Amino acid sequence: MKILITGSGGREHAIAFSLSKNEYVEKIYCAPGNAGTYYENKCENVKLNGIDEFVSFVKEKNIDLTIVGSEDLLVEGIVDIFQKNNLKIFGPNKKGAMLEGSKAYAKDFMKKYGIKTALYQTFNECNKAKEYLKNIDYPIVIKASGLALGKGVVICNNINEANKALEEMMIKKVFGEAGSEIVIEEFLEGYEASILSITDGETIIPFISAKDHKKALDNDEGLNTGGMGTIAPNPYYTKEVEDLFIKDILNPTLQGMKKENISFAGIIFFGLMITKKGVYLLEYNVRMGDPETQSVLMLMESDYLSLIESAMDKKLKDINIKWKDKHACCVVMASGGYPSSYNKGYKITGINDINGKCFIAGAKLDENKDIITSGGRVLNVVNIADSLEEARKLTYNDIEKIDFKDKYFRKDIGLIK
Ligand code: AMP
Ligand code: GLY
User: Which ligand is nearest to the CA of 274?
Assistant: First the structure.
């Protein structure tokens, strides 16, 4: 079997690594992939530009299945185009991808189907939004409705901060068109959980829970990032939380998807806030999380490809996913300065000396085939062990062995207070 994976991050390296373990997989093309997929078993990196080139490549190489790593191509409609060409692809069509591509649409969907979420208002005009800001309690959260690489959310403690955030999004357009519509919502306090899940349109099966660490600095300080590390399972995701999630969020989501005709074979990722008032849905994503995937797939005992195939065949109802009875800890090694500006092009050493697995995120090969830094989030080091403490220890030991100029990582991933 031949597979194509789109994307270039640590998530895509982790997906490729998982799929390569299936004996029926002969080849995995990664477009564009990175230095990690370059060296991964059965993998080959390919450069393809635009959806049309993806379609031609898949036809030319007789690729059996395409897996879309990140949201941009889904929102652009890659699934619709592949399906028109009778090509197998795992992920939602353009309409389904709106659950991630438009926060305004997603919030309206949640409201319509009684899914527990923060109270909100949507605005297309800056003046109307500013009027609204005058008579509300703070803090509040302002979100660019469109895709903004996880950066389009600002927590505002007072009206001045809120006006500034609005102007940046709606007038200065710092997130481009993504900020021409905005959502203002109630601030929720609690613990976050990432619940990735797989669906075939009839059933949604949640994966093992994960916890991301979104802020750049220790103690959850600093700017929001794509994620600086993850652990799985999430210690705050108790049985009681799980029951509330299924009742208040998962079941009504499935019902809503069926009613709105947005059922698909793919991933739904629920971003949860566990509060004293119950479990709230912050957002949907329609692809795997990065770096959640790196922890979650390391704990998956079942064969991931078989699971994807069951979803494509609408046979998830009878599936029971098996998980290792272990804990995972993934720490992101970043370029100093990320998520603001940073330097790149530095040689990375020590990757082959570690105990765990190193997924490569922002690194490429230079002309000597040395691995050099090329992005903000550079490496994702993961270990699994019988306890979270042990998994943390192993991962931080591994990190000591890896070196590159300007390396930066959080020291408190998985430290539960
Ligand atoms: P989102 O892209 O909607 O998941 O938001 C990014 C991050 O902003 C989340 O992971 C939370 O840390 C934070 N956030 C989003 N919405 C809220 C909210 N209503 N209350 C508190 N924090 C939030
Ligand atoms: N780590 C959060 C995300 O992938 O959206």
Answer: 1
